[in-house]
Design brief:
The protein has helices at 3-23, 27-32, 78-90, 96-111, and strands at 37-44, 47-57, 69-75. With 119 residues, the chain is α+β, with helices and mostly antiparallel strands. It has one domain (3-111). Strands 1-2-3 form a 3-stranded antiparallel sheet, with helices on both faces. β1 (37-44) and β2 form a beta hairpin. The longest helix is centred in the N-terminal third of the chain and has 21 residues, at 3-23. It is elongated, with a radius of gyration of 20 Å.
Length: 119
Amino acid sequence: MTEEEIVILRKQAVIYMVQQLVKDPQFLFNVSMGIKHFFQEFGKGDVKIGILYLEYRKDLEEEDKNCGYFKNTWFDSFIEASVKANEIQKNKVYDEEKLARFHQFYIEEIYNPKPILYS
């Protein structure tokens, strides 16, 4: 596959991915919860187009300040994409492992409550 064909396929993949994200009813909820980074690999069999990274940004001004846009970056290898994913993970303001443990503890407490002992 030539470089020109890959560029065309990548442009089409970006359009497709943005359309799929925006038409999902969860999209605005995800963005409001801080989920603004999306990775997706494109390719089939031996033909690898790359790994698409979309970042939702909302740093427009004046009348467009309530609208956002997607900045896209393509990675040619899994290693490059995982470096970016690790960087995003490290820069989060919350610890996902702690949140997961808290939710697990909460669910266990609801479904397996500890008996209350009266003296």
